[in-house]
Amino acid sequence: MQLNKILKCLSLILVFLLLVGCQSKKETTLLFVGSFTDKKPGEGIHVFEFNNETGEASLKFTLDSVTNTSFLKLSNNGKYLYSVMDSQMPYHGKIAAFVVDSINGKLDLINIQDCGGLNPAHIDIDKTGKFLASSQYSDGSLSLFKINKDGSLKPHSQVLRFKDSSVIKERQEASHIHSSNFSPDNEFLFAHDLGADKIRGFSFNSNTKDSLLNNENQIKMKPGSGPRHFAFHPNGKFGYSIAELSGKLTAFNFRNGDLEYVEDYQSYQKHQNIYRAADVHISPDGKFLYASNRGPEEDSISIFSINPENGTLTLIEHERTYGEHPRNFAIDPSGEFLLVANQFTNNIIVFRRDIKTGKLSKLNQEIVVKNPSSLQMRTYDVSL
Questions:
Q1: What does the entry give for GO biological process (predicted)?
Q2: Cβ(291)–Cβ(267) below 8 Å
Q3: C-beta of residue 349 within 8 angstroms of C-beta of residue 323
Q4: 3-state SS of the chain: helix, strand, coil percent to 5?
Q5: Alpha carbon distance 37, 135 (integer Å)
């Protein structure tokens, strides 16, 4: 009798496990949009649910009463979102940490820390997910933070300040750190100084107690180039800098902790007296590179193929952005869509991406957000 009861219980458990195993996996892709708020409290962050089949987006959440949340960065595991706050203000900016409610598409504030400088413009997170670097444009500073297990930020452990200049007086009168990137091996951090025409490399060890940035190595860019953003190739061997003031892309080999120059490429289609190149990203498969060009006469995405052997680029074409001032753009996790944030026309344009050719096709969907300046995307498993 006792044996029959045990067998019956085991059968029920087996049926339950089979039912659970047969449930289809449910996923949702979230789009996080950071915006400038005209230097006053306003709607700074929007969260949308993105349809991976149609390219449509539906608003799930809006964070109000924040100022100039102009750059966002998701944690490596997608559980937390970090945002600059009070960028372009005459006082120290801040970095805010949020926990992501992926089921409901909402954000909950964890904490806020002073960034240690003026006008935070960019955030990057190291490969362990334990450290965050913040780049401050206006006073040319670079800050390092420790990330706690709950996603919160400790006060900055290090702030480096740079005093330098270059040849374009109205834009390069001082150092302007526009972004920084941890290397694929996580042993270095490269900071891009638009004001000094330099990429500043630092050694970084995430396993030490202090984990500070040390041993600066200056990589000199061409005078008047203005290095702004950077992307490492998924293979960890190549890197690409986009220079705002010259409108050019520079390909590098990443070897032994150093960036070795390969070649320059013009990102704009047309010659201009003023360039405002902005952002650069590589497709998930590593075959294509995309860059954004923000006027004044051309608002476009340049598309290049990447030679897998040596990292050199070949221009495919230019695609207009159907809006003005494409400050930032993002490729969705599937690699099938590319979204462009046109800051001055308050719209985000959705393109379908041809995975084989790299070319873009505009969809009819358009996401309306005031002053969009930063995009992050992540696909979450929301199976119950």
A1: glucose metabolic process
A2: yes
A3: yes
A4: 5, 50, 40
A5: 20
Using alpha carbons, list the distances in angstroms from residue 186 to 126, 189, 225, 257, 283.
6, 8, 27, 10, 21
Contact 261, 252 (CB under 8 A): yes
Integer Cα distance of 307 and 316 in angstroms: 13
Q: Which residues contact 1 (CB under 8 A, 6 or more apart)?
A: none
**Cis peptide, bond prior to residue 296, ω within 30 of zero:** yes
The C-alpha atoms of residue 337 and residue 241 are separated, in whole angstroms, by: 23
Name the one residue in this structure whose structure tokens are 């040319």: 140
- Answer whether the bond into residue 90 is a cis peptide, omega within 30°: no
Model confidence pTM above 0.85? yes
Sequence-separated (6 or more) residues with CB below 8 Å from residue 381: 25, 26, 27
The structure tokens listed for 109 are 């504030």
Residue showing tokens 């915006």: 35
Hey, what amino acid is at 83? S
Tell me if residue 16 falls in helix, strand or coil. helix
Contact yes or no for 63/44 (Cβ under 8 A): yes
| 59 φ/ψ angles, rounded to the nearest 5 degrees | -70, 130
Which residues sit opposite 264 in a β-bridge? 250
CA count, 13 A, side-chain hemisphere, 214: 8
Please give the chain's pLDDT, 384 residues, in tens: 565 565 565 555 554 444 444 456 799 999 999 999 999 999 999 999 999 999 999 999 999 999 999 999 999 999 999 999 999 999 999 999 999 999 999 999 999 999 999 999 999 999 999 999 999 999 999 999 999 999 999 999 999 999 999 999 999 999 999 999 999 999 999 999 999 999 999 999 998 877 799 999 999 999 999 999 999 999 999 999 999 999 999 999 999 999 999 999 999 999 999 999 999 999 999 999 999 999 999 999 999 999 999 999 999 999 999 999 999 999 999 999 999 999 999 999 999 999 999 999 999 989 999 999 999 999 999 987
Question: By C-alpha distance, which of 172, 89, 183, 189 is closest to 135?
Answer: 189
Measured CA to CA, the distance from residue 316 to residue 303 in angstroms comes to 5
